[in-house]
């Protein structure tokens, strides 16, 4: 039987310690309590913990001081900081010091339990023991068995059990909407509506009406009352794609829904209530947008409770044969794929990701003159990008270059963070499990 996870809960308020402690105990964890940073530091010296949950503001030694002290003694266990509303700056500093996560009061216990469970599992390496997080099965609609994709599946399956917001990051064409649907389909809300809104395709005024609805006469052409997506998705899930395209005026209203679960229709004054699980996606760098003042910092931390990062296709080229077979089956084709064609497919950098691969397969099938795909039927830009000097094996040189670039990127991030795996993973924009797998693949070890 696996040993119970040991968690240290640190807060100067006994009521908060007891509440969090009872929640974690109910989840099968062994909880130790400390009323300030000094006592927590003594407890951490006397026993090994799988995770530490600490309030930020405490007498004697606060949460940041505790985290600094633990870091000076070596890499601490996953550290989750609890901050008061509006303490985003302190939370950012905590993350820079190596905190695994932070939570802003008030928060839901389900969100708290999920974050602690995830931090413990990642730190123990339970999902990375075989290099295949969460087993061999990915998510419905997601084809492949690469470690990166299986890590996505693992996070989604665990996050789906709760009602916390999920933020899906990744380039265009990586399958973000498929992941959003999986979050809904694997959740207790699966029988309720799944509603999708693509924010980037709508003007600001139209987007607000689409999200919140409008009253009759609210604007020219509003000849009847109309329900918005937050109403139609009530008790279900709302997928908001292209989150980074939402204007700041709408961001304010979205933040209100997340905080209070209330909104008003455009042109109306009645407060409407909604119970929606929000799943967002973007291909933009929201952290950079926050720094530039283009995206609200408080909204970012509200939607960024559970983050799923979709790997680009160039980072999981081993899945390409399975994807090709899937797309051929989807088209009802029995055309074969010779080795030289597959080498070109696996050696290409795929800026359009899986969506681009599907289009390339459809093109080749349309141009095929026999029972096999041909190199000459591939798009010109692919032929140019994968052209190699005479005598080299197809695509191997490109794959080698990509691996060298990836290894150097990993090494730079690890050295920059003093080989702190959690911080390096955040810099690289990958999960801790995926980074551990890559370190093993490239033989990267902390210098003695």
- Report the end-to-end length measured between terminal Cα atoms: 33 Å
The CATH homologous superfamily of the largest domain is termed P-loop containing nucleotide triphosphate hydrolases
CATH architecture of the largest domain: 3-Layer(aba) Sandwich
Strand content of the residues, in percent?
A: 5-15%
Number of domains: 4
- Name the helicity range: 40-55%
Q: Write down the CATH topology of the largest domain.
A: Rossmann fold
Physical arrangement of strands within the biggest beta sheet: 2-1-3-4-5
CATH class of the largest domain reads Alpha Beta
* Low-pLDDT ranges: 126-137, 388-401
Q: Cα-atom Rg, whole angstroms?
A: 24 Å
Number of strands: 12
Structural class, please?
alpha/beta
Total helices: the number is 19
Question: Please, what is the average pLDDT?
Answer: 84
What does this 3D model show about the protein?
This protein is of the alpha/beta class. It has four domains: 119 residues, Response regulator (Rossmann fold, 3-Layer(aba) Sandwich); 165 residues, P-loop containing nucleotide triphosphate hydrolases (Rossmann fold, 3-Layer(aba) Sandwich); 74 residues, Helicase, Ruva Protein, domain 3, CATH 1.10.8; 45 residues, Orthogonal Bundle (Arc Repressor Mutant, subunit A), CATH 1.10.10. 45% of the residues lie in helices and 12% in strands. The protein contains 19 helices and twelve strands. The strands form three sheets. The protein has a five-stranded parallel beta sheet, sandwiched between helices. The protein has a five-stranded parallel beta sheet with strand order 7-8-11-6-12. α4 links the parallel β4 and β5. α2 runs parallel beside α3, α10 crosses α12 and α13 packs across α15. The longest helix has 21 residues. About 6% of the residues have low confidence.
